[in-house]
């Protein structure tokens, strides 16, 4: 059973067929260059299906991120551990029309809480392409620090960011909320 998790502005939920068209458009565009794209519709289908299938095979996977106000899919976020990955990851993709809105932080922070509180993880990483400064900045806002490089098969070596421990993460997010509020 895939849980549904809400934040103030977002719903993190299971993928559904209607999500494929906006995701396919993203994966076919240059905006997907940091997540294995651009790719054709067939490859995009495989990526989306792998995200959905991860829930069956691993018991966790990426959530579809739905924007509450519009009901539109805003991206994918959550736990990810495909074959060939060195460690469990928290990944995020925020569709271009929803970027620069704070949705990435809101969704990723909730996904990290989910893996720590509900799945019992004690650590997580995020694999981020060298040139993807916006994603690295998000990792840093979440309290993660660059830990060097690791092999992410079949893509090669990439920088990874180590997320805070569960207790340190909660303290970090609460401090950010206080200072930002």
Task: Please specify the SSE layout and strand pairing.
Layout: E1 5-6, E2 10-13, H1 20-28, H2 41-58, E3 63-67, E4 73-80, E5 89-94, H3 103-117, E6 125-127, H4 133-141, E7 145-152, E8 156-162, H5 166-180
Antiparallel strand pairs: 1-2, 2-3, 3-4, 4-5, 6-8, 7-8
Helix pairs in contact: 1-2, 3-5
| Largest sheet, spatial ordering of strands | 1-2-3-4-5
Q: Strand fraction band?
A: 15-25%
Bin the helical content: 25-40%
* Coarse shape: globular
The H-level CATH homologous superfamily, spelled out, is Gcn5-related N-acetyltransferase (GNAT)
Radius of gyration over alpha carbons? Answer: 15 Å
CATH level-two architecture = 3-Layer(aba) Sandwich
* Average pLDDT score: 95
Q: What is the class in the CATH system?
A: Alpha Beta
What CATH calls the topology is Aminopeptidase
Order of helices and strands: EEHHEEEHEHEEH
The beta-strand count equals 8
- Given as residue ranges, the uncertain stretches (5+ residues, pLDDT < 50) are none
Q: What class would the helix/strand composition place it in? A: alpha+beta
Number of helical segments with 4 or more residues: 5
Major sheet characteristics: 5 strands, antiparallel
- Gap from first CA to last CA: 35 Å
The total domain count is 1
């Amino acid at each position: 059973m895939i849980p549904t998790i809400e934040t103030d502005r977002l719903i993190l939920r299971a993928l559904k067929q209607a999500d494929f068209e906006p995701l396919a458009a993203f994966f076919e565009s240059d905006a997907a260059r940091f997540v294995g794209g651009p790719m054709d519709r067939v490859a995009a289908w495989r990526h989306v299906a792998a995200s959905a299938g991860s829930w069956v095979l691993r018991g966790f996977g990426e959530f579809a991120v739905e924007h509450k106000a519009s009901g539109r899919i805003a991206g994918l976020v959550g736990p990810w551990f495909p074959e060939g990955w060195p460690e469990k990851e928290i990944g995020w993709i925020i569709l271009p029309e929803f970027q620069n809105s704070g949705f990435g932080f809101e969704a990723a922070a909730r996904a990290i809480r989910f893996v720590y509180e509900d799945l019992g993880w004690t650590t997580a990483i995020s694999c981020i392409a060298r040139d993807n400064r916006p994603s690295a900045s998000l990792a840093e806002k979440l309290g993660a620090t660059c830990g060097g490089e690791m092999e992410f098969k079949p893509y090669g070596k990439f920088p990874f960011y180590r997320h805070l421990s569960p207790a340190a993460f909660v303290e970090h997010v609460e401090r950010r909320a206080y200072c930002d509020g």
